[in-house]
Amino acid sequence: MNTSIASYSFHGLLAAGMIDIFGYMESCKYRYHLQSADIWNGMLVSTDEDYLKKVKEGLDGRELVLANLCVDGAHIWEDGLAAREKNHQNALANLKAGEFLGAKTIRIDAGGAGTSFTEEQFDLIVKRFREYAQRAWDNGYKVGPENHWGPEVVPENMKRIVEAVDHPAFGVLLHFRVNAGDAVMAPWAMHTHFSWEAVHNHLEQSMALLRDSGYKGFYSAEHHSAKNEYVNSAIQLACIQKVITEWQK
Predict the structure, then answer these.
(1) What phi and psi values does residue 154 have, to the nearest 5 degrees?
(2) What φ, ψ does residue 236 adopt, rounded to 5°?
(3) Above pLDDT 70, what percent of the chain?
(4) How far apart are CA 129 and CA 145, in angstroms?
(5) Span 183-211, average pLDDT
(6) Alpha-carbon gap, residue 8 to 52, rounded angstroms
(7) What Cα–Cα distance (Å) separates residue 65 from each residue in 84, 102, 129, 185, 244?
(8) Does residue 36 surpass a pLDDT of 80?
(9) Which of 128, 137, 167, 205 has the most CB atoms less than 10 A away?
(10) DSSP helix/strand/coil, 22
C-alpha cells in the first residue's frame, strides 16, 4: 500500500529532543507498519556522506523506500543575490543527498512572497527547475515545488510554472487545500500531503481526484499541530489506508 507519514508530523517531538531520524524510521516500520518514509530535511543533521550512509543503512535495514525528501532552505527565489546562491548550493547538496538515499521525489520550493511572481522571479524559477528536473531525469526521480506558501498557493501560478518547465521529471507535491486548485494541479502530482483538515473534511473526494488523474505515487499523512503527534498521525494514516482498502474491494 503506497502510504507514508511525513517526518514533519513529528516536528514537536524533534524540537523537544524526543525523536530523531532513526526514531522516525523505526516508527515508520514498527509502529505504523509502513514500507516507505517521507523525510523532511529538518530532521537530517547533515548532508555529509558519512552521516547519510547511516541514514541509508537505516532505510535499507528497515526495508523502507524513500517516497519523498522535503527540502526547506533551498527555495529558488530570494531578493538578495547571496541568499539565492546560498539556497542554490543547499538545493544541490540536498539533491545529491536525495539521490544517495534513493528518493522517488524531492520537493524544492519556488520561493517569493505575496500572490504572484515578477518576470525576473519567474524566469529564474523556471531556469533552475529545468536544471533540477534534468538532473532528476538523469538519476531516476522527480523534483518540484509544493503548494503550501507564497505564490505557490495560487494554483494558476503552479500551473504556469509546470507548463513553462515542461519536463517529464518535474512535478508538484500536492498539499490538498479543499479548493478548485486541487483539480488544476492533480495531473502533475508527484507526491501528496494530507493534513488533519484534509483527512477529516474531504479525504475521499481528494484521493479520488488523484486516482482518476492516474496518480501512481504515495499518499502521505502530514500532521501539523505539534501535539499528540504519534496518535494524531496514526489517525490520519488510518483514514487514508481505509480509503485505499475500500478501493480494492
Answers:
(1) -85, 115
(2) -60, -45
(3) 100
(4) 9
(5) 94
(6) 18
(7) 31, 8, 24, 25, 19
(8) yes
(9) 128
(10) helix
Strand partners, 219: 3, 192
Model pLDDT, residue 83: 98
Asked if residues 79 and 95 have their Cβ atoms less than 8 Å apart, the reply is: no
CB 186 within 8 A of CB 211: no
103: exposed, middle or buried (Cβ count in 10 Å: 0-12, 13-18, 19+): buried
Per-domain residue ranges for the chain?
A: 3-247
Rounded CA separation 92/74 (Å): 9
SS3 content of the chain, % helix, strand, coil (to 5): 55, 15, 30
As given in the structure block, the three cell numbers for residue 105 are: 521525489
If DSSP codes are grouped into helix, strand and coil, which group holds residue 76? Answer: coil
Residue 179, pLDDT score: 73
User: Which CATH number is correct for 3-247, 3.20.20.150, 3.40.50.300, 3.40.309.10, 1.10.730.10?
Assistant: 3.20.20.150
Query: What's residue 181's pLDDT?
Result: 83
Higher-confidence residue of 176 and 105: namely 105
Q: Cell for 156?
A: 494558476
Tens digits of per-residue pLDDT, 237-249?
999 999 999 998 8
